[in-house]
Amino acid sequence: MGLRVLCIDDDVRLYELLAAYLGPNGVTLAHAPDGAKGLGALAADVFDAVLLDVMMPGLDGLTVVRRIRETSQVPILMLTARGDEADRVVGLELGADDYIAKPFSPRELLARLRAVLRRAQPAAEAKQIVVGRLAIDVEARQVRVGAAAADLTGLEFDILLALARRPGRVVPRETLLGAAGRQDVTVSDRTVDVHVSHLRRKLGDDPKTPRLIKTVRGVGYVLSAEAAGDGP
């Protein structure tokens, strides 16, 4: 999947357990030990989903849901104590996408996470992604622009896939390679910019006025779903 998920929970042992299970299943799990740090992480980085505990010191989970929904529609899976029906109802009313009651198995959480992503972000797990004239076969690792095949390197494909799974969402430059699942590549602004430049050229995107992969100055890049269908 190549997903990046933020776990906002003061239970470090739970985070470590989930990270150990989710990692081999294609989910990179980041951790924030309280609500304030979680909101800070969401403001500074891009995530495909949030695992959010209800009971935390400081800002509780319900307050965090409310704050997140003021600026973002990132999928939220709430972690609640078994029997806390009122918290579950309020959380869903505030904008959470689903909940799972503690204690739970990592396998069940992964299944619920995938279900939430299928509903909220179909491209996150899709095997075929189409954005305008751009078609990506994830399993075959092939890309076509209209009728023409694009000959991409492995890293260029991973960068494009990271953007295509988040159409219309800005991916910060410093986290783009991580979102592409390429932590093995040394990260620098120049490294990312060069690879994006090569990718634009191979996709037929005008480097001077790109309409497919746009630069958000000082932040990162975004795949523009609207502009992708334009052109010859």
Explain what you see.
The structure is a single chain. This protein has 232 residues and is of the alpha/beta class. It contains 8 helices and 12 strands. The protein folds into 2 domains: 3-124, Rossmann fold (3-Layer(aba) Sandwich), CATH 3.40.50; 128-229, Arc Repressor Mutant, subunit A, CATH 1.10.10. The protein has helices at 12-22, 35-44, 61-69, 85-94, 106-120, 154-164, 173-179, 189-202, and strands at 3-8, 27-32, 49-53, 76-81, 98-102, 128-131, 134-137, 142-145, 148-150, 171-172, 213-216, 220-223. The strands form 3 sheets. The chain has a 5-stranded parallel β-sheet with strand order 2-1-3-4-5, with helices on both faces. Strands 6-7-8-9 form a 4-stranded antiparallel β-sheet, covered by helices on one side. The protein has a 3-stranded antiparallel β-sheet with strand order 10-12-11. A hairpin with a 2-residue loop joins strand 6 (128-131) and strand 7 (134-137). Helix 3 (61-69) runs parallel beside helix 4 and helix 6 (154-164) crosses helix 8. Mean pLDDT is 85; it is low at 227-232.
What descriptive keywords fit this protein?
8 helices, four-stranded antiparallel sheet, 232 residues, five-stranded parallel sheet, 38% helix, Arc Repressor Mutant, subunit A, Rossmann fold, alpha/beta
Give the CATH superfamily of the largest domain.
Response regulator
Helix content: 25-40%
Task: Examine the coordinates and then state which fold CATH places here, giving the name of the CATH topology of the largest domain.
Answer: Rossmann fold
Rg, nearest Å: 18 Å
Briefly note the structural class of the backbone: alpha/beta
What is the CATH class of the largest domain? Alpha Beta
Outline, from the CA principal axes? Answer: elongated
What is the architecture of the largest domain at the second tier of CATH?
Answer: 3-Layer(aba) Sandwich
Order of helices and strands: EHEHEHEHEHEEEEHEHHEE
Uncertain spans: 227-232
Estimate what percentage of residues fall within beta strands: 15-25%
From the N-terminal CA to the C-terminal CA, the straight-line distance is 32 Å
Number of strands: 12
Biggest sheet: strand arrangement? 2-1-3-4-5
Sheet with most strands: 5 strands, parallel
On the 0 to 100 scale, the average pLDDT is: 85
Number of domains: 2
Tally the helices.
8
